[in-house]
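Continuing the series of single-chain predictions for the mutant panel. This is the parent chain; the variants come on the following pages.
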Amino acid sequence: MRTVWDIIKAPVITEKALVAKEESQDGRQLLTFRVDTRATKPEIKSAIEKIFNIQVDTVRTINYMGKKKRQGRFEGRRPSWKKAYVTLKAGQDPFDYGENI
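Parent structure:
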């Protein structure tokens, strides 16, 4: 049995993610998280709602393939990962990544 902390790994704090968070549309805030590659959209939605006590409107996910990397004559690959864009329902209080994680 996976817990909510197994599904949600970490927030994605990049310039693109922070700009998307600040430029919310219709009063809905957009948050970005790194999630487990096997997690489904309903699992991500329920995990975010349980962890942060907020209401989620939609969840969009993207799978990233790990890049090929070389070290001398040996070739390896970085691990693949999954990112989730979580849109909160309108009227939710502003959210700060540093508060609950």
